[in-house]
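User: Some background: our group keeps a shared notebook of sequences we're curious about, and every so often someone picks one and asks for a predicted structure to add to the entry. Today it's my turn. The entry only has the sequence so far, pasted here. Could you supply the structure so I can complete it?
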Amino acid sequence: MTLKGDFTAVTHPYTRPLAQLPLADERVYLPYKIATLVDTLAEAGVDAARTLERTGLQASDLRSTALRTSIRQFMTVCRNGMAATGDPALPFRAGTRMHVSSYGMYGYALLCCETLREVTQMAVKFHRLATPTVALSFREEDGEAVWTFDDVLDLGPDDALHRFFVEFQYGIHQTLARDMVGPDFKLSRLRARYPRPEHAALYGVYFDCPIEFDQPDNELRYPAALLDKPAAYRNSISVAMAAEVCERMLVEAKTTSGLTRRVYNLLMERPGQFDDMEALARKLNTSSRTLRRHLTTQGTSYKEILDDVRCHLAKEYLRSTRMGIDDIASTLGFSDAANFRHAFRRWTHKSPSDFRR
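Assistant: Of course. Here's the predicted structure to add to the notebook entry:
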């Protein structure tokens, strides 16, 4: 199949560049985090089948080296865990289990780095391999190393799932740092965008540092002097070999998701006038049958990609414009507002009105 054009970020008056937005249904991620949540919930008495409900996955699938999963499947597992236990400590407990060995070759590359500074560079470069539900950025400021975790799924700081992802990431980062430089590693400060939760006392249990809520950003900070401390298991030859493998995995992920991304881009070019399969196939110099087969091979479909587009646009219209619900429904090609409301709740577990508030 011949496909035209290189990837370019398509923008819309109410959207961010697509390059910043992971597609929820791209099945390109190894199931590192899903497997960890299954194990963590099993310890709490939650059967794996319940944890994996509505994901299309079986517990035995997680042992396959060929399995690739999507962000939506991971999100579903998180929601299942939250519903099954109601335990606010779940993301922290899962985060403490995410040792470097949980990340396969990506983790091995981190483990063999010379210093924590090299770890930061490696982590940012290969973060796409780790089912990215938050965007990582790193800087040094006033003698501190600062990790910032941005929302890339448009959940917002008041969403319980967003807080789950960030709390999970806090736990992961502390665990990985202790794997790298030793068990005495200690954060100097933790900041969160969301309001002080009812379970705020748990932060003191898992993080021995000052905690601040209602902050501009989600941040973890530690003394910058630690960045150049030799890592416990550093090995320059091993890290070079592991990085080469990660480079190949990154290329594979980008290649695998290329067709999905191009279909997404084409649909985003004409919001509200979405091409059908036949029109998309013509633009991609192929047949609709071949296009459908390739999307199926990549674990997605025209309907799933169209849902991603509509969901993203709906959020931006609700957040950034004064358009009424009826107008948004019409703009996105829904026959009426009721169908739009039903779809939006399926996508986000919120009504359009609740999301706008």
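Suggested note for the entry: The longest helix spans residues 160-181. Strands lie at 134-141, 144-151, 189-191, 211-212, 219-223.
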